Structures are given as structure tokens and as C-alpha cells.
Amino acid sequence: MTSSDQGILSIESSHSVDETMAKIEAILREKNVKLFARIDHSGEAEQAGLHMPPTKLLIFGNPRGGTPLMLAAPTVAIDLPLKLLVAEDAAGKTTISWNDPHYLLVRHNLPEALIANIAVIAAIAEAAAK
């Protein structure tokens, strides 16, 4: 897993973007996590006559996990629901990226006890990457 100074964690996937997306969606269904949106950035670019490598975003969450965070710090709603970005680079490598839960805690001055509500995102990414 790699991290950036901007609070983004990433992991390489062993699968294509579409296969990785399908795996994430299956994990979310299995865990009864609501999928709010699936955004196909590369597909939208293609429709505009532009080309970019496959790049897709899933937005998902569970009110039982997110609501306590938003009650503690309403500004965290700008970073929720949770998101996973699945993108292919120029070399054909697929990467899954997400906001680092610790970064969000600091950014929104959230209590450490609430990190478990969003830390599950790493496990979802890691399971989908295998």
C-alpha cells in the first residue's frame, strides 16, 4: 500500500479496472453496504470525444457508520460517503485509491474512536485487489 501527502492511499490490483470494480461491488453487496453511485470518468470522456485510460469511481456507505462521524464533525460530509477510485495507468497497471481514514480524522478533527467506522475501506480495497 502506498500513501501520498494529500491523504490518499493506493494499492495495486491484480485485475483490470472492470474486474476490480465488479469485485468491489460484490463485496459491498455481501456486506450489505449501499452503493450510491458508479461514475465512469473514462466513459464520459469518450462521449466527449476525449480519451483517457479506464478510470471509474464507486461511492458507497452505510448510515450507521457515517452518521456518527457527521454528528461529531458536520464538515466530514464533504468527504462522505466513502469512495474507491479504480484507474489504469499508461503502463496498464490498475490501482485502487481512497482517502486515508487517519487523514480524514485529522482534517475534520474527529475523535479517534470513530476511525473504525471508515477504516473498513482498506479491507474492501485489499480484498478486491487480490
Automatic annotation (TrEMBL):
Top-rank taxon: Bacteria
Domain DUF302: 39-101
PANTHER family for the chain: INNER MEMBRANE OR EXPORTED, SLR5037 PROTEIN
Name of the featured protein: DUF302 domain-containing protein
